[in-house]
Structure formats: C-alpha cells, structure tokens
Amino acid sequence: MKIYAYGIRDDEKPSLKEWETAHPEVEVAFTQELLTPETAKNAAGADGVVVYQQLPYTRETLQALADQGIHQMSLRNVGIDNIDLKAAKELGFKISNVAAYSPNAIAEHAAIQLARILRRSKELDAKVAKRDLRWAPTIGREVRMQTVGVVGTGRIGRVLIQILQGFGAKIVAYDIFKNPDIDKQGLYVDSLDELYAKSDVISLHVPSVKENIHMINKDSIAKMKDGVVLVNVARGDLVDTDAVVAALDSGKVSGMVMDVYENEIGIFNEDWEGKKFPDARLDDLIDRPNVLVTPHTAFYTTKAVLEMVHQSFDAAVAIANGQETRNLVKF
Ligand code: COI
C-alpha cells in the first residue's frame, strides 16, 4: 500500500518517521507542496492522500485525484470547511479528519490570550520594551471577575470551561447540542441573545457551517455588554470583521483575540517581513494594543502535531483497507 502526503512541514517529519517505522508494510511518499490540481498528479499510484487544511480543495482538485484513481483523502486537521463536499460526494470520496488531536492545545491558547487581553499584556510588553516601567495607566482585570460566554460546548469549548473554572470565572454556555456534564452544572442559557447579554467575554467554539457564518455582526454585537471582549480561535468567517472593527473603534468591544481571520488563506503561515502586506484591515488590527492576532497557531503544539500525523495516516490506511475508522467524516 502507498500513501502520499502533501504539505509535510519539517516539524511533522519526526512524527512521520515514527509512524513509518511502526508501519513498514506501508510505502510513504511525501512532499512539502500543497495539494492543488497540478500537484495531484504526483500522487499517481498511491492508494490515498494525506493533506491538511491550507488551501480550498475544489472540485478541480478532487477530480485531479480521482483521475489518478484516488478516491480518499485523510486530513491531518479537523475542519472540513475548505472541501467541496458536494463534489467529493459525487466523485465517491471517503474523507477522514482528526477530530480530536488536542482540544487542549486550542482551549489553552484561547485561555492564555484571553488572560493576556484582560491584563493588557501587549501594552505592558510595549512599555517595558521602551524601558517605561511605570504601572499606570495599564491596570488589568481579573479572569475570576468575568462572566465568560462559551459558544459551543464540543471538546474544545468544554476544555476551555474547565480551564476558566480553574481561574474562578463564572461560565455561561450555549450550544444547540447540550452536553450532559455542562447541563448538570447548570451552565447553559436558553439562547445566544441571553449569552450575549450576560457575558463580559465571549469565546467561539463552533464550526463554520452556514448558520454560523457572521454570527458576530453589527446586530449581535449590539446585544452584548459594553466593553465586551471577543475570542475567536475557531473560524474567521464566524465574525463580520468590519462590524468588529467598528465596535473596537467605538469601545463597544474592548478587546479581541483572533487566531483566525476571514481572509486568512494565502496570508497566514507566510512570511511578510520586508514585503508589502496584502490586507490593510488585518495590518491595522495587528497594530492595535487591544487586539491579539496569531496566525492560526492555536492548534500548533508538539502533542497536536504528533496526533495529527499519526491519526491521519492510521485513517488513510484503514480506508484503503476498507476498514472502519472513528475519524471517517460523514457528509
Ligand atoms: C483544524 O484542525 O481544522 C485547524 O483549524 C488547524 C489547522 C491545521 C487548519
């Protein structure tokens, strides 16, 4: 059996080596290049491909794989929102993802950045770098004094709740699917509007499905407390960025954590130093003292990368062998 992997980064190679050593029966070939209609040809002869989400996987890309006789794709990440699922279905693709490589990686990042916003770390760091070592006016707020609204109580939302409860924060949660543990604790509110009205901080942990696109917009922001802090480590298109920029300008939103951005494809995971930055709105957000931008790195830990590599290759082999895999995506 042969598996061909796209977009393999140096930091993934040790985990890949480990997996290969444990699976001598599988021939592994890989490239640094991302999967595109052109590079799909290089997978000829493979039983399956392993990829991660950095580009849209269009009908053209899927067709190019199908032309090589490849009808399976194993993602090393969780999100499937970049895949033309209609085309995948029509072309008879089986797709797997890594549903739980490390919920803690993402939840921890959200919690850390949220605490940094409340303690005004970016402003303090900038002052210290200039050797301005005065306290005032950079006074912070404590996590335990906040009501945090967690939207989405899947794996990541639940770990975030645990972490924030450790800090002593009051939690309110919303999800259309109630989790029994969260329900038992009495954390659910009945509607998003109620969550918006009660929360000092709102953290998003829902997928980018059409009902959720731009759920944070002018109208929903109007329902929030003055000075609310927003945290988005989920998907960029959950947030109408223009609406948030206006709310940051007016002070309605007092801070924003963004690990994802609406137009991040082609911008994040690239080095723009010394080059013309392609997005003026993002440029401005990065410069703001009360906005913490990270380039979709919430997931990026050694544990997560190891799981992403091992679980995606396991799934690719299982699909190629016609076996069950818990990571098969239903679409
Ligand atoms: C995901 O797993 O879906 C992520 O957002 C991480 C990234 C590698 C795309």
Q: Which range does the strand content fall in?
A: 5-15%
Largest sheet: 6 strands, parallel
| Helix and strand pattern | EHEEHEHEHHEHEHHEHEHEHEH
CATH C-level name of the largest domain: Alpha Beta
Q: Within the largest sheet, what's the order of strands?
A: 7-6-8-9-10-11
Q: Taking Cα atoms only, what radius of gyration do you get, to the nearest Å?
A: 21 Å
Helical residues, percent: 25-40%
Q: Helix tally?
A: 12
CATH architecture of the largest domain: 3-Layer(aba) Sandwich
End-to-end distance, in Å?
26 Å
Give the overall pLDDT as a whole number: 97
**If you consult CATH, what is the topology of the largest domain?**
Rossmann fold
Structural class: alpha/beta
Bound ligands, named by name, code or SMILES: 2-OXO-4-methylpentanoic acid
- The domain count comes to 2
What best-fitting shape do the alpha-carbon axes yield?
globular
InterPro entries: D-isomer_2_OHA_DH_cat_dom, D-isomer_DH_CS, D-isomer_DH_CS1, D-isomer_DH_NAD-bd, D-LDH-like, NAD(P)-bd_dom_sf
Organism: Oenococcus oeni
Family: Belongs to the D-isomer specific 2-hydroxyacid dehydrogenase family.
Enzyme class: oxidoreductase
Short description:
By secondary structure, this protein is an alpha/beta fold.
Your description of this structure?
The protein folds into 2 domains: 2-101 and 302-320, Rossmann fold; 103-293, Rossmann fold (3-Layer(aba) Sandwich), CATH 3.40.50.720. The chain is built from 12 helices and 11 strands. It has helices at 13-22, 59-67, 85-90, 103-118, 121-129, 155-167, 180-184, 192-198, 218-222, 241-250, 280-287, 302-320, and strands at 2-5, 27-30, 48-51, 72-75, 94-96, 147-151, 170-174, 201-204, 228-232, 253-258, 291-293. It starts with a strand and ends in an 11-residue tail after the last helix. Helix 1 (13-22) packs across helix 12 and helix 4 crosses helix 6. The strands form 2 sheets. It has a 6-stranded parallel sheet, sandwiched between helices. Strands 2-1-3-4-5 form a 5-stranded parallel sheet, with helices on one face. The radius of gyration is 21 Å and the shape is globular. The mean pLDDT is 97. Helices cover 35% and strands 14% of the residues. With 331 residues, it is an alpha/beta fold. Residues 52-53, 77-79, 296, 299 line the site of 2-OXO-4-methylpentanoic acid. 2-OXO-4-methylpentanoic acid (COI) is lined by residues 52-53, 77-79, 296, 299.
